[in-house]
C-alpha cells in the first residue's frame, strides 16, 4: 500500500508538470503571435524598476486596487502602509508645525491618507475624504459646500438618515433639496438650478 501511494503521488506530479509545460507552450505561442506594439508594451511593464516605484502610464483597475496610494514606509521599508494607531504626531517646532503633514489622527492619519488616495485614483476623482461613519461623511459634505439659500440635487433612494437630515435639519436652515431618480442622468440635469451647489449621490444606493 505504501508503494502504491508513492506511485500515485508520482503519477499525479508527472501529470501536473505535463499540464504546466503544455500551458506554458500555449502561452509562449500566443505571445509570439501578438503585435509588435503589444510586445513593446509588455517589455516596458516587465522592465526592472526600483522597489516602491511602478510603471509609467495608465494601468488597469486591478492594478490600482492593489497599488494605488501605496508607497514603502520610510522607517522600516514595509511595502504596505502600516496601521498607524497613534492619536498624535511629534512636531519639530512651532514654526514647522504640520511640516510632516500630521498632527492629530482625528484630522489626518497616514493610514487614512493612503485609503483616500487609493479611493480617489480608483474613482478618477480630484480627491477623497474618509470618515468614521456615513453620517459624518454626509454632514461634512453638506456643511462644507452649502449655506442658506443654496440648492442640492440628491438621490431619492438615499439612506434614511441622510434623507431626514436634509429635510428636518438642513432645510430649516434655509437650504433647499430636490430628490430625484439618479438612474437617469437627465433627471439630474433637469433638477439643476442657478443656485445648485451640490449633487449628492450615494453608492451603492440604499
* Whole-number mean pLDDT: 81
User: Which overall shape is indicated by the principal axes computed on the Cα atoms?
Assistant: extended
Give the assembly state of these chains.
single chain
Task: Output the number of helix runs.
Answer: 7
Q: Main β-sheet: number of strands, strand sense, barrel status?
A: 3 strands, parallel
Terminal CA distance: 60 Å
* Total beta strand runs: 3
Would you identify the regions where 5 or more consecutive residues have pLDDT less than 50?
Answer: 1-11
Order of helices and strands: HHHHHEHEHE
Gyration radius from CA atoms, angstroms: 27 Å
What does this entry look like structurally?
- This protein is mainly α and 206 residues long.
- The protein has 7 helices and 3 strands.
- It has helices at residues 2-32, 36-46, 61-67, 110-122, 134-145, 160-170, 185-191, and strands spanning 151-155, 176-180, 196-200.
- Strands 2-1-3 form a 3-stranded parallel beta sheet, sandwiched between helices.
- It is extended and about 75 Å long.
- 7% of the residues are buried.
Amino acid at each position: 500500500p505504501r508503494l502504491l501511494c508513492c506511485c500515485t503521488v508520482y503519477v499525479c506530479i508527472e501529470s501536473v508538470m505535463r499540464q504546466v509545460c503544455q500551458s506554458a507552450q500555449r502561452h509562449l505561442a500566443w505571445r509570439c503571435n501578438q503585435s509588435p506594439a503589444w510586445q513593446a508594451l509588455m517589455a516596458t511593464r516587465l522592465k526592472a524598476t526600483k522597489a516602491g516605484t511602478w510603471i509609467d502610464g495608465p494601468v488597469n483597475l486591478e492594478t490600482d486596487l492593489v497599488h494605488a496610494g501605496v508607497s514603502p514606509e520610510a522607517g522600516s521599508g514595509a511595502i504596505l502602509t502600516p496601521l498607524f494607531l497613534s492619536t498624535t504626531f511629534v512636531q519639530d517646532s512651532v514654526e514647522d508645525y504640520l511640516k510632516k503633514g500630521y498632527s492629530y489622527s482625528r484630522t489626518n492619519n497616514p493610514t487614512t491618507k493612503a485609503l483616500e488616495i487609493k479611493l480617489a485614483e480608483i474613482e478618477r476623482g480630484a480627491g477623497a475624504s474618509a470618515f468614521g461613519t456615513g453620517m459624518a461623511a454626509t454632514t461634512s459634505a453638506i456643511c462644507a459646500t452649502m449655506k442658506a439659500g443654496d440648492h442640492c440635487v440628491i438621490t431619492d433612494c438615499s439612506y434614511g438618515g441622510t434623507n431626514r437630515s436634509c429635510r428636518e435639519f438642513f432645510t430649516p436652515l434655509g437650504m433647499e433639496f430636490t430628490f430625484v431618480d439618479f438612474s437617469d442622468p437627465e433627471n439630474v440635469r433637469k433638477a439643476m438650478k442657478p443656485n445648485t451647489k451640490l449633487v449628492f449621490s450615494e453608492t451603492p444606493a440604499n
